[in-house]
Amino acid sequence: MTYDVYFGTSTPPNTLIAQNQSGTTINRGGFSHSTTYYWRVVAKDNRGASTNGPNWRFTTAAPPPNPPRNLRLRQRERADSTYWDQITIEWDAPQIPPEVTYYTLYRNGSVIRDRLVSPLWYRDTGLNQATLYTYYVTANSDGGESDRSNQISVRTHSLAGYNVEINQTYAENLSFPGISRWINFSIVWPGEYIIEAWITAPVSTPRLNDSYLYLFRGTRDNLYVFNDDMGGGNLGSRISQYLESGTYYARIRAFNYESTGNFWFGVYKRSGVADLTPLADTYISLETPNDNYGNLPRLYVASLGDIEALGLVKFDVRNGYIPGVPWRAQITGATLRLYVDTNLQNNARTEARITRNPAWQENTVTWNNFRGYQHSNSENATVYNDVRVYDVFDHVNYWYSGNANYGFTIVDEYLLGTRRVFFYSREWGDQRYRPRLSISYERPDFYQVGSNVDNPPIPAKK
Fold it and tell me: SS3 of 432, please?
């Protein structure tokens, strides 16, 4: 017994693709998507008799979608998309046809979310600090999974909140002719950095002939020059330089300096985000108006009939100074993040309000000695499961521009009904869930090398 096989896209199929075949299988490829094919078999014996089989058919699957486009960090108004514990990404739909049924998101090669339909963004939470993560996304339909989108790699912020770790006090008073100063610093994330050294003096009597800034990489005992003379000026030096992760040494030299003044050194990114932990936090309660709760691991906010409880949180934001933000930077966004203890009741809708007065101390403030929150300049929380995020851009700018900072007061939005929520405080054992203030900034050039400038703020020694 032998077989002839006919194949084609019309019925009956008339294209002979195999003749006098003794086997009962045949392999064939090169099919088009979403196409119906027909085939039939003619069986023949050795006496010349033959029998036509029925017309069979099959339809190939639709093609998979095109890959998603333009995977990127998601930029929200006045906020950054990367924090120490989460990354928010977004993408554009692929060119169609074919239609997309859902999306699959991959982190470091493994699926972290499947069957995403809309919106076309995702907040990846529960991440480790200062860790590099790689993402890509695919589109899916009845035709299968698309090729990968473009791939992006994003590093979460450090809990320390600094792009640069400067291991020496970098602002000090000078009162002697000529200086030669060594400063060491560490770069956590590679990138383009601004390195500056300034000597400020009374405008009427500066006597500085020249200054130079040298940058070395390695250890001080075994240095090699990374970038030698970075440029000199009458009162300062600045350079923009790509720096890898590692330890660097800067040497600042100034000649014939015969006037008192202030020396300042800075290493920073032109734009970035500083993540701050609280200087102080606590809560006060009308139910126990003379009690202080400054050492507890939770903040309590409540509106339970006649019982009211307020949370108090303060960060180090002063006139022209924020830790991790370079001198003279412009604030472009600020978000306050409070983490909810989901094991306890948390149905209160909260607001962050500016505390106008009076000043309060974490270990002494009570309901009876505090009368300070302002109903204006309040921000409602955006709720993401176990975290509440407040846009506090106006609050931070208020303090950064010179107004006294007495912190945030966290209150129930309505102050009525039976509502309460428990947030983790700075005393909570796991630092990932402590309150966090994330401030994004940009650092434009306000002055040119060689010009006289006013004195920068001197950070407190740590």
Answer: helix
Nearest to residue 181, comparing CAs of 189, 172, 190?
172
Beta bridge partners of 389: 337, 382
For residues 290 and 236, give the distance between their C-alpha atoms in angstroms, rounded to a whole number: 54
CA-based Rg of the chain, rounded to a whole angstrom? 33
The tokens describing 381, both together, are 């929380």
Do 53 and 86 fall within a single domain? no
Given 59, 81, 108, which residue is the final one in a domain? 59
294 and 428, same domain (yes or no): yes
pTM above 0.85, yes or no: no
Structure tokens at 313: 């949180």
Q: Read off the CATH number of the domain in which 236 is found.
A: 2.60.120.380
Range of the domain at 79: 69-155
Tell me the C-alpha distance between 266 and 273, whole Å: 16
Q: Which amino acid is at 129?
A: Q
Distance (Å, rounded) from C-alpha 345 to C-alpha 335? 24
- How far does CA 130 lie from the centroid of its chain? 11
Judge contact between 372 and 360, C-beta under 8 A: yes
DSSP 8-state symbol, 433: G
Q: Quick one: which of 171, 176, 252 has its CA closest to 210? A: 252
Inside any domain, residue 455: no
How far apart CA 426 and CA 86 sit, in angstroms, is: 19
pLDDT in tens, 251-286: 766 554 454 555 566 677 777 788 899 999 999 998
